[in-house]
Amino acid sequence: MNKKSKKLKGKPNRRTQTAIKLRQILFGRTVIVVLLLLIQFFLYFLFLLRLQQFASLYLGVSIVLSVLFLIYLVNRSGKNEYKLAWLFPVFCFPVLGISLYFLFKYNQGGIWLKKKIKKIKTYSESYIQEKSRVEEIQNKYSNIKDISQYLYSYGKYPAYEGTKTKYFCCGEDFFSDVLKSFEKAKKFIFIEFFIIEPSHILDRILEVLSKKVDEGVEVRVLFDSIGSIVLSSSLLKNYFSVYGINSKVWLKFLPVFNTGYNNRDHRKIIVVDNKTAYTGGVNISDEYANIESKRFDYWKDAGIKLSGPAVHSFTLMFLEMWNVQNKKNQSYDNFEKYIPKKNEAKLSSTEKLNKDCGLVIPYGDDAYNNQEIAENVYYYLLNKAQKKVSIMTPYVIIDNTILDALIFTAQRGVEVELIVPQHYDHFITFCVGRTFIKTLIENGVKVYAYQKGFVHSKIFVTDSIYGTVGSVNLDYRSFYHHFECGTFLYNTDSLIEAEKDFEKTKLECKEITLDLYKKISWYVRIVGWFFRIFSPLM
Known about the structure:
Distance between the termini: 44 Å
Mean pLDDT: 84
Number of helices: 20
Radius of gyration: 24 Å
Shape: globular
Low-confidence stretches: 1-30
Oligomer: single chain
């Protein structure tokens, strides 16, 4: 079949766009929660109307269950914000609330996923950089030995010398460089994204990938079924197969209740020949590349390119996620085909060539590792600050750990600045985020609203020396629910460029003061304060 005959149009027509919006609404978390509440309301009133003689028994049992649950909750470890978020539904609808709590707390739908992740992590340990080399680097960079040791001990993410990094301040520059790297590929190309949509940028990518496939380059694509909901998973897989591209779906969505569906693959990873890797905030859609967008005038995003030994970790992260999606009894890939089995303790030739490039630690995070790696990296960067912290994030929905750290950092004389969107892409998330912003500006943190369009960058720079760029938002979903990735950076040129980008972007912003906050629409503030209690569940 002619590949060109299967080529998707870069821009969906109006009917397709309407269908896309309907699917996004129908499968949104808010709709699911509302439906569950409506079901309980219906059962509750049915009970009152038809079983009035048992009403007192029901109320008595509900009170007892609620009190017992409260005692249980107080004595459990975990974030107080998460506990508080469950008290409201439990006291209003005890049976449903308690049932849902235990469903999500113990994540029965994700048990099989947890087992598979543990198994693949064990399998991949023999491909992680030698401990002796890691310790050698840690001793050399003693001022960040602590974070290096943490990421290696609890996540198996080693530190690397000799890796060049390049910062991209926008999606168009990011994709331009990516396409050039694709052209140079000799062995394999790995692509992992939360969102892949029919678009002009996807057409450009597939045009290059099609040529590379014909040249014998192996191409793999892993995409999230919810993030890429514009097309059905099967249709998108079939579409890739026409181009000779092997693809897999992360947690294919089925219309059944499964708590495991809450853990989406929000990572953005591109790997070429284990020599070049990319990550950041961008997805594969036209608005991220600023080709076409009806929602915003400009989409501000960021990304980073790695060239050198640290790419090894991103290759391994992709292979782990890819093999987690293997069918039952399907064997794992031979990782050695793509990455060497253990790095030598001595400096490689690439590391020697790039010895003055600083330190790079690619890392990942997920809901099953019993660690808050992504949040801890941000927390570390705040505690490390002496002069200035620069943050760009689309969302600010945080727990008290990060909230207090941001405030304390500002109160001890460090200049803490955040750039956030002026306009929203998710209304309730935006409203809740504004309540946290109010708390921050009341305590000395400076927050700027991006006026030009929408800011989607996820960067964190401390004193222009330490920082991270990746897929991690400043919100609960990134910290606790999603699969995420990032790159911890120390003393790299890319951090200087990220800081310059921050200052340049600030010129296109307006500072949010308390007076300006008071001018925000009353309904935005009310929605924000009401839903803030549910922020850990959003």
